[in-house]
Amino acid sequence: MSAILDIVASAGLWAAVLRIATPLIFGTLGALLSERSGVLNLGIEGIMTFGAMVGWLAVFNGADLWTGMLVAAASGALFGLVHAGMTVSLGLSQHVTGLGITLFASSLSYYIFRLTVPLASTPPTVTPFQPIAVPGLSDLPFVGPALFTQTLPTYLSIAIALLLAYVVYRTPLGLALRMSGENPHAAEAQGVDPIRVRYGAIMAGSALMAMGGAFLTLSAFNSFFPTMVQGRGWICIALVVFASWRPGRALFGALLFAFFDAFQLRLQTVLGDVPYQIFLMMPYILSIAALAVMARRARVPQALMQPYRRGER
Amino acid sequence: MTTETTESTAEPVLALSHISKRFGPIVANDDISIALGRGELLALLGENGAGKTTLMSILFGHYTPDAGTVRVDGVELPHGRPRAAIKAGVGMVHQHFSLAPNLTVLENVMTGTEPLWSLRSRKGAARRKLAAIAERFGLSVDPDARLGDLSVGEQQRVEILKALYNDARILILDEPTAVLTNIEAERLFRTLREMARQGLSLIFISHKLDEVMAAADRIVVLRGGRVAAERRAAETNKAELAELMVGHRVTRPTRAPAEPGATVFQASRLTVSSGGVERLKAIDFFLREGETLGIIGVSGNGQTTLSQLMGGLAAPSGGEMRLFGEPVAALDVDDLVQAGVGRIPEDRHRQGAIGEMAIWENAVLERIRQPLFSRRGIVNRSAGQAFAATIIEEFDVRGGTPTSRTRLLSGGNMQKLILGRNLYRRPRILIAAQPTRGLDEGAVAAVHARILEARQAGTAVLLISEDLDEVMGLADRIQAIVKGRLSAPIAAEDADPRRLGLMMSGDWAAGEGNTGEGHPHAS
Fold it and tell me: Which domains are delineated in chain A?
């Protein structure tokens, strides 16, 4: 029992929580943005993979780290454009299109990677983002090393979560976004163009997803390998439901999942006689449990997954 | 334009000129011209499919007309641009509300009213403006309530407020009373009159003669996509309007006196509970061959439970039932179908038919396991389609073929399909719950004729309805339902609107009580 308390009381755990949470925060916010407008984007897993690859590739070829992030975001927006074209303009199945994008983007990532980077026994690396100690705050005991010695993209992801919470609930744009996801006919009747709103939300959301992927190669690790997203995209889709489509809760959900993950990693070293697979399962089982509790009260956007066609009711 | 006038209706606020619109081969609007004066309350009367909604959708910019112009204060509106209509001061209250249930009242109202890229929503100012409008027209509603938590009447108020918030001077209401209770409808018309008095111009679409006569200044009748007539409300009457609307004199079918036969169903002290509430309380009634029992009542007094019970969807918690003389604990859907009990459910879209399935599939749905329609789990499509074709032919179902999707049928035709499915086999009992709700005059007459015909042929009919005329026209005996209790039956000859009105208000409950007297013995 005291071993468990030691883990929770270590600053290292909390630092790891923020690090693990960052790609989830990006991805969850991206999926949330898209779903708030009424479109499910199951391309997330592939878009994250592609973002991880293309961001890394840009930096590997001499671009600076932020340019790498930007390139990743742009590539995400491009996949978002494809998804929007298929699901919004053509009204195709959002599930099928999204899964198609995941398969396509994942394979394309590996293909481009193989084409441009020579095969080597150890994967080529870049110099990733370095932790920034926030002046003043990082000197605080415990809290300092736990929360304020992260890389810049981590701070950025939290800032975006707060920004999105503001935009969604406090601006006309956020209202237009929510109305498009709740009742696009009503939005149209009030002079808001739900098609443009959906395009914008999907593209911006996909850009965030790709940035989440790029965080993996440019901050968490320093190289790319094709399976590195490891289902994080799907976790994000579940976290959106857990968060009841609210940005603030999405941030909390991502941190909670990351806590389970960081906790089980450390628990493995303490309880050596339990098979490690049990620990690996833990964050997922706890997530499902949390989801089961939270999702019952979730308010789904009413027009989620319903294509909107002008003049049709 | 140059003539000076104090007459407020001199120059129309809104003028629709020579509007035409076709959808493929169907002409929805054919050269329609209508003018609306300031402070006027105009009714647009017509049957379903007369082109009312199409016309209003053109006016509001949802559709682009093939020909014609829309002018507001003499300025032509561009076609197909809702935003231009809003800016010109036209507001529309849709039949199916354009509202988002998960958002608050204020959010629903504010959508689209501010520049999209403003850095913040000015909720305080919006709240004050909304309160002022609500005050002015007596449309009170909590701005922070979640829309989905409001009643239908309140939601409609939000829809009206939304239009007024956008500074609408011309308000279009598409069948505003379709979803309202009588009391809510009265309240709505009081509000509309008040708005007209304050200088707003209003058009409401309707197919209900009573409300058109009661509320409107002027009535434009549409039929088959054209203006059939225009009347001042003071200079016309219901009979004339009905004739103009349908195109011929409407005659409700006359009926021969009933010759009741054996009792086929009897309920004694029957109680049905759901959700811990007694929905039906110790009710007594019986059904006889060749006779119609009418259950009249204001909606929400247990009618839904009664029709569920009779349709085999709810089981009693107390009392006795006899079906064809045999005691039964509960009615079972399969047994009912086997025994020849036809059912017309209250909600035809949700319980009566499956919209996404073909007409023939709906026609055979109840009997799909019978050898005629399937063998060893394989559906006999041609038999099913032939059966559907027969129903379409015999019951005059228009607008579809056996293989077309059922949701494409209008409400009246869907009801005729459901009727046909049930009546084709000459059922021994027919349960008809609100069989003409939402139907236009022509379809009502057709449905009534069929129900009378079935009763004439010996079917025992249970008619559950809120429509006084319908019950008086069809039923031989009448019982009122009030708060889950049934009154003792009265003979149709003794019924008049006043007496039924008293029964529906529960007057009997005080004196007579539910004695269930006058029951014959089951034969």
Answer: 2-117+150-295 (1.10.3470.10)
